Amino acid sequence: MIERLKAYLNAVTVAKRYVKDWPKLILLTLLDKRGIFTAKNGTKTELIEAKVILKALVRYDDRLRKMGYDSERFPLSFNGRLIEISVLNGFGKIRYDPSKLYSITVLPEQLLEAYDVDVMGKVVLDVGAYVGDSVLLWLWKGAKQVIAVEPVPEHFEALKETTKGFPVVTINAALGGPVPDLGAGYSGSGSYGLRRPRHVKAWLNVPVMRLMELVKQYGPDVVKLNCEGCEHAMLDVIKRHFKAAKREGAFAHRRTCPHKAAAKVVDAVFIPNGTDTRYFRPLPREEVISFKRDLGIGDDELLLLSVSHWYPRKRLDLLIRIVGYTPEQVRRKVHVFVAGYLNPKDPSMIKHYRGALEEARKHNVKFSRRFLSKEELVLAYNAADVYVHTSGSEGGPLAVIEAMACGKPVVMFDIGSAYPVHGRNAFVAKDVNEFAKYLEVLISDERLRHKMGQNALETSKMYDWNVITKMYLDVYRQALKGE
């Protein structure tokens, strides 16, 4: 009883500290009602649950006091449903939705000592960007651009709000391995690890990317890892292998025991997967027309192809849904063929895809349900008009470069692959709606399909095994010279 009374009195004190109409906030919290509230600086909320705002303010105030700060140091504002906190002498504002995040972040001022690297005029890759605390720090210290990677969707939404209007690329992805979905109660905490806890039934449905893919794509000068989860697996990679062109180095930071771990910088080389362009190549139309007819597809109808295992991370159910999103007049023109093994004895797999398999019947989607032979695979690629790849996590997807070697344009999600060049040999979608839009564009434009297919064929020559083998040999020769 005494503890509850103390908590109540503390809540009243906090409400007085931050809110003009604090009596209304306390009353509506007790009544479990919603209201519009005004901060001390005159900014207002939208109609929102009173207890949500009060709980967020209590947590924020408690965090400030534990860090040794008072409320005057970091002015707080209301902005509709968001709370905004001015940081770094007003340089930026951390914005977050109090109904989704359970604790406010470490403030950038706290990170100044831990992150004492010079980033003036440089590009920073920030892995584990949370709600944008360290991102604002990099920009305040003069970074030219920040690539901010954050796997937790609630944190990612706050990250986008915090960095709006700044030179920041935000990526909702995990690095190195999947991240468990621990539920809303764990938002804002450091409760992530390399292994999924027993009570967790799912992984966060976000792409999984590789460090060197991000380095190759964005060319950062500095890499920062906040290792609370999937980033742990990357520390050894950083220490052993990170250096690209004139990159200066990398460091890691553990929030639970703040320190800077300077990584020894050594040479590293990114070598992609290759393909046999002598085998995967364009075939004459007369050699592949029978393949389409065997599938029941007319000569003047279009074929979308996906070559994939039926693992959940391949997201073939998403492909079927995306086809359903395209306009009916477009759907009538196309057939979809999924070439890959579906184990009928795996109950979890069947359960995962049951709804998708039923939906497939409505949209001219056919399945091989088995592995195709190499000869059949070449025929399938050549029979296709567009190759589609819906996986959310890949390294260097072989099927994509094999399809390109057969002269086919590709539509895929942005998974950091080296093969696609958006708008040239492929369309790289950020979300489902973009994917459906790009499909519709290619389905409706034969000339564009042909042009992008020719570009894809040229791209594949860069990844022929003869080229890739030479890259490996060069690395070995350089390593031997260095010994």
Structural class: alpha/beta
- Helical residues, percent: 25-40%
- CATH first level of the largest domain: which class? Alpha Beta
Round the Cα radius of gyration to an integer and report it: 26 Å
CATH architectural type of the largest domain: 3-Layer(aba) Sandwich
What is the domain total for the residues?
3
Number of beta-strand segments:
19
Number of alpha- plus pi-helical segments:
17
> According to CATH, what is the topology of the largest domain?
Rossmann fold
Cα distance, first to last residue? 71 Å
What share of the residues does DSSP label as strand, in percent?
15-25%
Major β-sheet annotation:
6 strands, mixed
Order of strands in the sheet with most strands: 8-7-6-11-12-13
Summarize the structure.
With 483 residues, this protein is α/β, with parallel strands linked by helices. Helices cover 38% and strands 16% of the residues.
Describe the structure.
This protein is an alpha/beta fold and 483 residues long. The chain folds into three domains: 80 residues, no CATH class; 173 residues, Rossmann fold (3-Layer(aba) Sandwich), CATH 3.40.50; 182 residues, Glycogen Phosphorylase B (Rossmann fold, 3-Layer(aba) Sandwich), CATH 3.40.50. It is 38% helix and 16% strand. It contains 17 helices and 19 strands. Strands 8-7-6-11-12-13 form a six-stranded mixed sheet, with helices on both faces. Strands 16-15-14-17-18-19 form a six-stranded parallel sheet, sandwiched between helices. It has a three-stranded antiparallel sheet with strand order 3-4-5. β15, α12 and β16 form a beta-alpha-beta unit. α9 crosses α13. The longest helix is centred in the C-terminal third of the chain and has 18 residues. The radius of gyration is 26 Å and the shape is elongated.
